[in-house]
Structure formats: C-alpha cells, structure tokens
Amino acid sequence: MKASLVIPTRDQELALGLTLASICSQQASEAEFEVIIVNDGSRDGTAVMLDRFSAGFPFKVIHLPEPRGAAAARNAGVRAAEGDVVIFADGDCVLAPDFVAEHQRFHRERADQFVVASGAAQRDVVYSVYFPDFSTDALQNLEYLAGQSNRLNERLVSARREGQPTLLLEPAEVAGGQYRPWTFTVNNPVAEGFQRLRDQTGPDLRHIPGAWQAFITRNVSVNRAALREAGLFCEDFIGWGCEDSELGFRLHKLGMTFWLQDTARNFHQEHPVDWEARSRDARRNQQIFTATHPEFEIQVLWSNFRPQGVDVWALIQQYHELQAHREFADLLAA
C-alpha cells in the first residue's frame, strides 16, 4: 500500500529542515511512500532549501508563488499525490521513525474499511528552535528540559546570547533519534479530550458523536479516493482553524469511521503564537463553517450557542438517538 505524505509549509525554514531530517529516517520502504512538500509562498529561505534537498525516496516540491493558505496548499499536495493513502503532517513537526510505516500498517489491516487514522490524542512537542519571543510558559518548559541536559543548556545559553531564532537541535541528531530529551508533554484540551474518549471506549470512535473532529491535519491519514469524493479542503477558510474539521465532517457524512492511532507519533516543534490573530481567524472561519453546514451538531459545537449548564456532547448524542427512530427523524427534519 503506497502512501503519500503531504506537508504544507510557509516561512518555517529552520523547523522544516528538521522535519526533512526526520523524514529521511523513516523506516517505511522507499518504494511504498512519496513525500510532497507544498511551499505556500514562503519569503524566507524555504524555497532554496527545498530545491537543494536531495532525498533517497520519491520527493516532490510544489512552489505556490503567493501564500494561499493551508487548505489550498494541502489541496495542491493531494492533487499531486499518487498513493492509495494520504498522510498529512505539518512543516513544523518531527516525525518518529515509524510514523509513515504505522499509518500504512493501520490502513493495510483495514483495507476493506472506510477509515480515518488520527493522532488527535497526542500532545507531545519538541523544543528544537529557540525564539526570543517565546511565551513565559514555553520558556519555563524549555528551561526545565535544559536543566535535565547539559548539552541543551549550553545551546540555550548560547542562543539567548545571540538573541535571534536559533537551532537547538541539529538535523543529524533528529535523524538519529536523539531529540527525545528535548520533548515535552503540554496541556492541550483537545488532545486530552480524545485521550479520555480512548480510555473509555477504545480507539474506534464510530459510535462517538463529533468523532469527525479528530481529523486534525498535524497527524492524520485517509484514503485518497475518499478525499477526492469529499471534495478536498474548502479554500474559503483563510488563516487558522476549521479547514480540517470541516473536511472531517464531510468525510463523516460519507460514512468514514474515525480511529485514534497512537502508534504513529510526531512532535510539534514549539514556536511563538499570535493568539490574537489566531482568535480572529477562528471566529471568521467558524462563521463560514456554520453558514455552510446547517446540521444540528455543527450549530451547537461551532456557533456561539452554548446553553448554560447543558452537556453539549450529551445533547448531540440524544439528538442522534432520536434520529434513529423514524417517527422522530421525520419530526426533526421538519
């Protein structure tokens, strides 16, 4: 089963170099996977680095002349893909050596099923680059890790002295798997929610309302034919948020089953976040999401409708249970 690993990137030259190093250490057969990097109008040295990159596996680079957003970048990658399965990751993630092989194994074992494999329950990060404008929490995490490693501490001291974004890890160290002391588990409400679901029900989320929200493109894989049938990512979503969840919902409507796949691991490379801009993007994209899909669960989960004291997930579950009864389904559709 051939897989296509699709990774969009924009202005992430330092982090992307380490992502590429982790791809070079993949244990999957070179004949069974390809890598497609989509450069979404980067203005740093990303384009030059990608054009100079030499890979021992099928490697495609797509340069978009202007930034078009994550949805458009991923769509360009999917259109160029030749694999049976498409694996999505981000350009600022370090992939574990068996990342591709584990996604392939998951789909090979369920070749007769309509499935999505998601790493949504994972919340591991790696401190691979020092940024002077790291948040207080990020700096505290990094200092904690530096306290456990003389090598990291020496590099952190040097990076602070330079006062600019600086690599804390070298590509050879990533390829050799020596980045684990640089990793940290962060508080992530979404991942923690999926962890609780996994502990309660197991990895198969077919009976869980809202399981489509596990379609998080940092770490997810799906049959390429299903992506095309669903219509790929909606390019109306600009900036951060919703483009992956909205496609997950359309895949759900096609009958896809969502599974949590914990054995295919990757590590997000921490970087500063403009939370104000991200919040603006999320509000705008939520409006697009709810305007596009009038379905009950979308309106409850993604609009500003939050009934005080009501368990929203229980409400959605009850709604679906009512739909299972024909007389109530006709009433709900009215």
Could you walk me through the main structural features you see in this protein, from its secondary elements to its overall organization?
This protein has helices at residues 13-24, 46-52, 70-80, 99-109, 136-146, 150-162, 171-175, 189-201, 224-230, 243-253, 275-292, 296-302, 312-323, 326-333; strands at residues 3-9, 33-40, 59-64, 85-89, 93-95, 115-118, 124-126, 129-130, 166-167, 183-185, 219-223, 257-260, 266-269. With 334 residues, it is α/β, with parallel strands linked by helices. It has a seven-stranded mixed β-sheet, sandwiched between helices. It has a four-stranded mixed β-sheet with strand order 5-13-7-10. Helix 1 (13-24) links the parallel strand 1 and strand 2. The longest helix is centred in the last third of the chain and has 18 residues, at 275-292. The chain is globular and about 70 Å long. The N and C termini lie far apart (45 Å). 39% of the residues are buried.
